[in-house]
Design a protein that fits this description.
Helices cover 30% and strands 25% of the residues. By secondary structure, the protein is α+β, with helices and mostly antiparallel strands.
Length: 374
């Protein structure tokens, strides 16, 4: 058993008891967004938010859902500020355990997410959520929860609770999910119940501590931490904590046929905006960015055929990377993120992307962003 630091969470509850205003936030993939729930009020995220509202009726609560389907912690660390942290959350659930691969690369990007949230000015309490593939039991919780343990952050594992109940015959897979991944209404409810069960336990501890002091007293040790904002040294190389996402708002590349997308972006789920469009073979775009880690984000579409492009890093044409706009899945267009440099030399790099021959008359190539880190 590891040592959980619950001071932030207990202070959230104490402030709620006193009638404060708190923001309850969520960052993750499609399950957090609410995929396969019949309506947003039946998602696990909204049910957890509702628990806060009903449990602490004197307080005012705000709800921020930063879930985007098909996205990993690599994208999450670069968009955390815009999609979650700028709202100054007080409590955050982080959910990438079925989107990240179980490997050291995603452990590093995930640590970047956790460090960025923990260091944010509002000093939010963080809870890790490990969703699961219900057919295989696979997820990345081994790598993610190692990060959680290092920072004393609690976690709730669906694999160790709801999925285990299914394997033991108490529940059937069909009761929980239609596609072996995304929960239905009942599945979302059971996920929420596991989070709420944890929160109820911490609430009981907090009430017991308040009873000993005969009042609600904010934790002075936590207040000291809020001033210092000291985190332990990272367990990975931690190149991604300060990752940035570069769209037409942040960078102005050289355009040779590509054009900037002029349509207005309407919210964080309106993904294919603020990027660049290539319409025909030979169209080219060139970036110059200082970084040691670079990834390119582009649309993979089910509207086939789609144009493809070739990426050349620092003039190395022998090792060019093909960016294929055709998506092999059928659930919709994907905000695909492809690493092209990981722990390279920190310097100015030249990134050239040129539309290839073939696919004429098909769907345009949509370049969403570069994600850089160092």
């Amino acid at each position: 058993m590891y040592s959980m630091d619950l001071s932030r969470l207990k202070n959230c509850m104490r402030r709620a008891v006193c009638g404060g205003e708190l923001t309850i936030g969520f960052l993750g993939g499609s399950i957090t967004q609410g995929s396969l729930a019949s309506e947003h009020t039946k998602t696990y995220a909204y049910r957890v938010y509702t628990w806060w509202k009903e449990t602490f009726p004197k307080a005012k609560f705000n709800y921020v859902n930063g879930g985007i389907g098909g996205t990993t912690s690599h994208y999450g660390v670069a968009r955390a500020e815009a999609d979650l942290l700028m709202y100054q959350p007080d409590f955050v659930v982080v959910d990438f355990s079925v989107n990240d691969d179980a490997d050291v690369f995603f452990q590093e990007t995930y640590e970047g997410v956790i460090r960025k949230i923990l260091a944010w000015d509002s000093m939010p309490a963080v809870l890790l959520l490990n969703n699961v593939f219900y057919d295989t039991g696979e997820n990345a919780q081994e790598y993610h929860n190692a990060v959680g343990k290092w920072y004393g952050v609690p976690f709730v594992s669906v694999r160790d609770t709801v999925y285990r109940r299914m394997k033991e015959g108490e529940l059937t897979r069909e009761e929980l999910t239609e596609d072996c991944l995304h929960p239905n209404d009942k599945g979302h409810r059971l996920v929420a119940e596991e989070i709420i069960r944890f929160l109820e336990g911490i609430k009981a501890e907090t009430e017991k501590e308040n009873g000993k002091t005969q009042g609600v007293v904010l934790d002075s040790a936590w207040e000291g931490e809020k001033q210092a904002k000291v985190l332990p040294s990272p367990i990975t190389d931690n190149a991604y904590e300060h990752a940035r996402r570069l769209t037409i708002r942040e960078v102005s590349p050289e355009l040779f046929g590509f054009r900037a997308d002029a349509e207005e972006k309407m919210g964080h789920l309106d993904g294919f905006k603020n990027g660049w469009i290539g319409k025909k073979a030979g169209d080219k775009i060139v970036f110059r960015v200082e970084a040691s880690c670079i990834a390119v984000q582009y649309r993979k579409t089910v509207q086939k055929p789609a144009l493809r492009a070739r990426l050349i890093l620092d003039g190395d044409r022998e090792h060019g990377v093909v960016l294929d706009g055709n998506f092999d899945e059928d659930w919709g267009d994907c905000q695909y993120l492809q690493p092209i440099l990981h722990h390279g030399e920190k310097k100015e790099h030249r990134v050239e992307i040129k539309i290839l021959q073939g696919g004429e008359g098909g769907t345009w190539f949509y370049l969403m962003a570069l994600i850089i880190a160092w």
